[in-house]
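Input structure tokens:
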């Protein structure tokens, strides 16, 4: 899928964002089949991919993160899986298991693909991407409800997400959540996370870049997300983090 066609598809996601907010954690948020190369059924690449997905399915739940490579040369497959930092091990396993099944249904025979859920993401490619910020695979979601004072609200959102970024990039999980009181009746909730193949400095760079997209993503909206292949943020005016 080309970047232009991906972005067109993303526009339709924005229009349907309220419906997506009501989706359960078992519903994919989005997926991209990004490789220009294909593999065939029963080929060495196909076998290696399935072996890698087996590894990620078992490796990820205990810590919420897994990565690995299987095979050699042009048949080598690289992949990672990441669960949201507040998600329990059992729910992490369920999400990665579902992601494995769904990504193969949505991107059959593509050598590179990524799928996002509310609780996890799964990515694989014939290109070794570990330690590199993925700025190509990205989408936005936002709440269609707007706030009364966009300028002030936007600044509050940026301040909270920046504060969470400064905590996340120095943590072992590259993950942070928090909240901020806005007046007497409104609380702003936020979450930021990076994939753990990134260095601390690249995590911060990735999140700073995502936060810089706030005007494009969700200007004056009650809730929003920038979700990428290496990092993501979310904010809402209702609690969404798992206690």
């Amino acid at each position: 899928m080309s970047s232009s066609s991906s972005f067109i598809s993303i526009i339709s996601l924005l229009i349907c964002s309220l419906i997506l907010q009501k989706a359960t954690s078992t519903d994919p948020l989005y997926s991209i089949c990004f490789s220009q190369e294909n593999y065939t059924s029963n080929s060495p690449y196909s076998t290696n991919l399935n072996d890698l997905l087996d590894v990620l399915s078992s490796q990820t739940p205990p810590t919420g993160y897994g990565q690995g490579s299987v095979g050699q040369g042009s048949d080598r497959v690289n992949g990672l899986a990441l669960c949201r930092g507040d998600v329990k091990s059992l729910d992490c396993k369920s999400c990665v298991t579902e992601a494995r099944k769904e990504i193969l249904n949505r991107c059959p025979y593509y050598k590179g693909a990524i799928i996002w859920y509310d609780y996890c993401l799964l990515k694989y490619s014939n290109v070794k991407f570990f330690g590199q910020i993925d700025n190509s695979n990205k989408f936005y979601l936002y709440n269609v409800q707007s706030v009364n004072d966009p300028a002030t609200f936007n600044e509050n959102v940026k301040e909270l997400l920046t504060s969470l970024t400064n905590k996340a990039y120095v943590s072992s999980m590259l993950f942070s959540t928090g909240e901020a009181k806005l007046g007497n009746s409104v609380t702003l909730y936020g979450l930021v996370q990076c994939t753990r193949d990134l260095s601390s400095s690249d995590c911060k760079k990735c999140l700073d870049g995502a936060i810089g997209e706030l005007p494009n993503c969700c200007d004056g909206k009650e809730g929003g997300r920038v979700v990428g292949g290496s990092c993501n943020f979310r904010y809402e005016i209702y609690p969404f983090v798992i206690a």
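The domain at 3-130 is CATH 3.30.430.20 (Killer Toxin P4; Chain A). Confidence is low (pLDDT under 50) at residues 1-24.
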